[in-house]
Design a protein that fits this description.
The structure is a homodimer of 250-residue chains. Chain A has two domains: 93 residues, Pseudouridine synthase I, catalytic domain, N-terminal subdomain (Alpha-Beta Plaits), CATH 3.30.70; 142 residues, Alpha-Beta Plaits, CATH 3.30.70. Chain A has five helices and ten strands; from the N terminus they run βαββαβββαβββααβ. In chain A, strands 1, 2, 3, 4, 5, 6, 7, 8, 9 and 10 form a ten-stranded mixed beta sheet that branches. In chain A, α3 crosses α4 and α3 runs parallel beside α5.
Chain lengths: 250, 250
Amino acid sequence: MRWKCMVAFDGTDFFGWQSQAGGNTVQDYIERRLEVVFKQPVRIHGCSRTDSGVHAAGLVFHFDADWSHPVKHLLRALRVGLPKGILITAVRRVPDTFHARYSTTGKRYIYRLYEGWASPFESRFTYSLENRKVDTNKMKQAAMCLVGRHDFTAFAADRGDESREDPVKELRRLDVVRRGKSVRIIFEGSGFLYKMARSIAGALIDVGTGKLAPDHIRTILESRVRTALVVTAPAQGLTLDKVFYGDGEE
Amino acid sequence: MRWKCMVAFDGTDFFGWQSQAGGNTVQDYIERRLEVVFKQPVRIHGCSRTDSGVHAAGLVFHFDADWSHPVKHLLRALRVGLPKGILITAVRRVPDTFHARYSTTGKRYIYRLYEGWASPFESRFTYSLENRKVDTNKMKQAAMCLVGRHDFTAFAADRGDESREDPVKELRRLDVVRRGKSVRIIFEGSGFLYKMARSIAGALIDVGTGKLAPDHIRTILESRVRTALVVTAPAQGLTLDKVFYGDGEE
C-alpha cells in the first residue's frame, strides 16, 4: 500500500530535508519514527529536497507499507514521537502509480521579508532587512521579466554533484505582496533549480533596495550564467508552501 | 537619565525573565548587552517576572545610564548582540519618577490554545489541545464569574519565598475569542498573582472540555484556597502582551 503524507516543519534547527550521516534532517526523523510504527525500516520519498534552514508548510512525501487499522490511527502514530518542529498534517492512501516527486505538476514557495526587525514570533521564518527598505513597485517590475518559460541557469547554483537537470523551467507566478512592513514574494512554477527561489529572492531584494535596476534582471536571465551579481537570499525567509499534483491530487 | 524599554521575546529557550545563577534568562542577556554598550554594569528593572517558557510581546523595563548620542543609536546598539529570540522594540527617555514595576496601572496577557496540533509556525507560542475540543460558550460563562475585584488566592501559586502580596486583584477583562480552531484567552487586570493567568487558563480549559462545570469556577474562587482542582496551563501558551501606565505612558 502506498501512503501520501504532508508535513510542515520549522527548518531552523534541521540540516534540511534529505537524509545524511549526522541524522539531524527531517527525512531522518520521519524514517526513524516510521521504523518504530511499522517495526521495520521504511524508506520515504520526498517531493524535493529543502536546504538547511528552509521551512515547509506542505511538503509531500510517500512511502509503501501495510497498515490494517483506521487511517486516523496512522496519522496519530506519525504525529507523536517527532521533534516539536515537525508536524505530519495529513496522510492518505494513494494508488501505487503516485510518486511524491515524479507526479508533481508544480510547487509554490513563499519568501518572507520584513522592513525592520521581525518580532521573535516571526523572525525564525522571516528575513529581517533591519535598516533597509524595499521599493516593491520596482520588485514587481523586475519580477515580470522572470515569469514564463526560461532557462534559469543565471538564478541557480551548482549542486556540486553529477546532477544534470534541465535548466528550463516555467515560472507561472511571481508576485510581490506588501502588507505594512511585511513583504512576501510568492513563486509558483513547474519546478525549481537548486537555490533558484532564494536566488530570485536575493536579486529582487537588490532591485528593491536600489542595488540593481529592474531592467537588469532580464539581462542577467538572458546571460544564462550565474555570477556574483545574484546573491542567494538567506534560507530562513523561505518556505515550501504547497506542492501541486494533477487530477485534483493536491 | 532614566530609559524605558520595551522588549519582545520567545520564551521557549530561556529560564524566564529574572536574573539567576545559570545566566540563561532574558534579564541576564539584556544586562550583559547593556554592560557592553555602556562599558559598566547596568541594572535593569522589569515590570514583572515571567516564568520559564512564557513569552512577551511588550514587556517593559527601565534602567539609569548616561547617553549623549541620538536615541535611535541607543536602540540600534541594544538590538544587536542579543540572542535571536529577544528583540528590543522601543527605547525612550522618561522622568526619573517612572518605575517599570511600580508605575504600572495594568497588564494584558494572552493565552493561546489550538484545537488540534498547532503548526510548527505557531506551536512555540500555543498550547495544542490535540484530540480535545473546547466549548467556548461555557468558557465565556465561567470567565464572567472571575471579572471584577476578587481575592484570587484559589487561582494563584505560592512562590515559595517570603513574598506576601495582596491577593486581591482587579480583573478588568477576561475574554475568550475563537477564530477557527484557534482560541485566545485575553486577560487584563490591575496585577496578577504568581501563576494566576496560567491557573485561570487551566481552569477555563477544563470548563471548555467539560471536566469542570462553569458554575464551579465561582465556588473555587470563593473558597480562596488553591487545590488540585485548578491545573496550571503550560507556559508555552502564555504571552505578556502589553503593560499599561498612567498618564498615557504606554
